[in-house]
Design goal:
alpha/beta; N-(1-d-carboxylethyl)-l-norvaline Dehydrogenase, domain 2; binds NADP nicotinamide-adenine-dinucleotide phosphate; eight-stranded mixed sheet; 2 domains; Rossmann fold; 11 helices; single chain; about 290 residues
Length: about 290
């Protein structure tokens, strides 16, 4: 970056450590991180990436040109407020958060940036390995956005700008792509258990299927990637699934709701009108639970 800014972090967790690691690797000047004021001071995995850790937020902030607040979402605004109230920031310091839900404006109205990596970071070392493959969605004021673009370019990241007031849609989509995928797989494992397949074996067996689906999505897009009984119009098979599941209201409901979304893709893929109508009837039919 042009002026080799000093970059500090508040909240050295999974995202903070992974971002700091790639920044350091690319020669950026990561100066340190502020921990929770009541933190024990013991270093957690990943935190060795920071030259130093301190509970003294104001002291860290006074040396920073860019300060990333990578704490849980609901602490971001109060930390930004504290920094401003204590006059801890230099006049042009850019404040950044990495939440996908909140706009940059929760940090203030000037020199603010949100930079959300669209990635699931369950553990710091995995996050570190994968973070450069993520798309980063940026919003902020003009100064914040300029700095975000420069940072993203320096790090070689994929990035785009998002409208601040549309972030709730964007983040809800991220929940579908990632968290609900996990929930969906777990629901599938519950069904496999009903077939006598233990969860551990079920997951091992499911992963190649999931991976082949992801490959198809990547190569072909959602319409051509769709296979299975709904896409083929096999209503007898779908009715058989629903009948088998009729004792489990939750699974039945999930299967039918997602079936309706799947049916719309099948229609786009060319399912004939009569087959579409029959499948709709099968999926919408009231099942007697018990
Ligand atoms: N994980 C993801 O998949 C992901 C993906 C994209 C964006 N994000 C966003 O990135 C941000 C960080 O998420 P994360 O997953 O990295 O969270 P995380 O692993 O839980 O890390 C949060 C860090 O903040 C620290 N912290 C909490 N309160 C603090 C305070 N008052 N002052 C200083 N540090 C404090 C925590 O310390 P303790 O551990 O001691 O409490 C922890 O080190 C969130 O805004 C999240 O929405 C996360």
């Amino acid at each position: 970056m042009k002026d080799n800014p000093s970059i500090a972090f508040v909240g050295p967790g999974r995202v903070g450590c992974a971002l700091a690691a790639i920044m350091k690797e690319d020669g950026l000047n990561v100066i340190g991180a502020a921990t929770r004021p009541d933190s024990s001071g013991e270093k957690k995995p990943g935190q060795e990436v920071f030259p130093y850790l301190t509970p003294d937020l104001a002291q860290l902030a006074q040396n920073a040109d860019i300060i990333f607040i990578t704490t849980p979402d609901d602490r971001i605004a109060s930390i930004a407020e504290k920094l401003k109230k204590e006059k801890a920031l230099k006049p042009d310091t850019i404040m950044v958060h990495t939440s996908g839900h909140h706009p940059a404006s929760i940090l203030g109205d000037k020199n603010v940036l949100a930079m959300h990596p669209l990635l699931s970071m369950a553990r710091w070392d995995l996050a570190r390995k994968n973070i450069k493959s993520a798309w980063f969605f940026l919003d902020g004021d003009q100064q914040g956005l300029e700095k975000g673009k420069e940072l993203a370019e320096t790090l070689g990241l994929n990035w785009t700008v998002i409208e601040s007031d549309k972030k709730a849609f964007y983040h809800a989509a991220a929940v579908l792509f990632s968290n609900y995928l996990v929930a969906l797989v777990n629901a599938g494992l519950e069904l496999q258990e009903k077939a006598g397949i233990p969860k551990e074996t079920g997951l091992k067996a499911a992963l190649p299927l999931i991976e082949s689906t992801l490959n198809n999505l990547q190569e072909l897009g959602p319409v051509a990637a769709l296979t299975g009984p709904v896409a083929r119009g096999d209503k007898g098979t779908v009715a058989g699934h629903l009948k088998a599941m009729k004792g489990d209201k939750r699974l039945c409901k999930l299967y039918r709701e997602l079936g309706l979304f799947t049916l719309e893709i099948a229609k786009e893929k060319g399912l004939p009108a009569e087959a579409y109508r029959q499948m709709l009837k099968t999926l919408e039919e009231e099942i007697t639970h018990g």
